Amino acid sequence: MITFPRGRQVVLGVGAGIAAYKACDLLRRLQDDSYEVTVVPTSSSLNFVGRATWEALSGKEVKSEVWEGTLSVSHVALADAADLVVIAPATADLISRIATGRADDLLTTTVLATSSPVLIVPSMHPGMYLNPATQANLETLIARGFYILEPDTGRLTGKDSGIGRFPETNRIINKVREISGRSARLVGRKVVVTTGGTMESIDPVRFIGNRSSGRQGLAIAYEALREGAEVTVVSGVTEEYELSGINRIDVKTAQEMQHVVSAELGGADALVMAAAVADARPEKIEAEKINKRELTKLALIKNPDILAEASKLKKSNQIFVGFAAETGTGIREKGLKKLHSKGVDLLYVTDVSDGKVFGETETTGVLLSKRGTEWGFQAADKHEVARQIVAELVHELGAANG
């Protein structure tokens, strides 16, 4: 079973304030909004809400120090995976440390390493919030591109009242949605991805097919979802998978896939043809199992070239991505020929010599662009290739409508 996170990745940083308990509700609401949440509390905040609570609510291991899990380089992994970092509550001390570029625990190192948007939700005593030092630190963060959600005014701990109260969860969620909408570069775009192999029946038992797992196409669908796209996956024969948020259409044969692609193409901004389509199918499908003694030859007819046929209907503002599996020498040169003959904007040609790539998590190949640029991948994670393809979709779609 291939499983993917439920949605976009959020790091929820929790500072050492009494309002830390309210972040538990925020975590739940983020999950309800289909965000995948990793909680990174400061060590001091664990005095208010313990590690066991965060792990139970998030379903993930919770770390607060860089020295926990050093083999995985936790802060770099979190920083790279995060689509958004939310720090709620953010105390005066935590805001000060971030503003001065400190990196003395897992949360501050993650913030320093990430290139994703960061939302700071201050919560503290009114005197601390209004102190010129805190206000100057917040202004510094705003100047650096951080998002700041002003706290509410109301009852705090004890008899204190004033500005500094942790905002209502709805306010934070609305701000998260606003920021995510800005950072998701394919919002309002429809991407159609074909994946997996096709199955061409010979008789009720046998078929012509291939060893495609569908992993590469699914990785592209997932990365497009992370960028806010509406994603339709035309799914051939694949490993079992669960990918929330897509419109999934299952097919078996090349003809079925061509019919669905043609129907979906009109409203699409991009087509990614990652499926491994069988080149031919039996001329006749037998209703009964063929006796093995009679199975001495098989008459075949050519399957439609789905991408080539779709290219005939391609609009000027649509972006097409093709895939090619090759063996032997001259992989790049073979890919360049197909890039131009297929009429696509991008083509990923992969080396499948000795049965490599199919069913594996890694791939070796070259991503070619009609602009003349190219990217080489050697035993790379398929998500790495997918991220580059989606980044090029963002670029090309911007250019197409520029």
- Uncertain segments are none
How many distinct helices?
13
Q: Tell me the fraction of residues in β-strands, as a range.
A: 15-25%
Q: How far is the first residue's CA from the last residue's CA? A: 41 Å
Shape: elongated
Structural class: alpha/beta
How would you characterize the largest beta sheet?
8 strands, mixed
Mean pLDDT: 90
Question: How much helix, percentage-wise, in residues?
Answer: 25-40%
CATH architecture of the largest domain: 3-Layer(aba) Sandwich
Seen as an oligomer or otherwise, the chain set is single chain
User: Would you state the CATH class of the largest domain?
Assistant: Alpha Beta
Describe the overall structure:
The chain is an alpha/beta fold. Helix content is 34%, strand content 25%. The protein folds into 2 domains: 8-183, Rossmann fold; 190-400, Rossmann fold (3-Layer(aba) Sandwich), CATH 3.40.50.10300. The protein contains 13 helices and 21 strands. The protein has an 8-stranded mixed sheet, with helices on both faces. A 5-stranded parallel sheet has the order 3-2-4-5-6, with helices on both faces. A two-stranded parallel ribbon has the order 1-13. The chain is elongated and about 90 Å long. The mean pLDDT is 90.
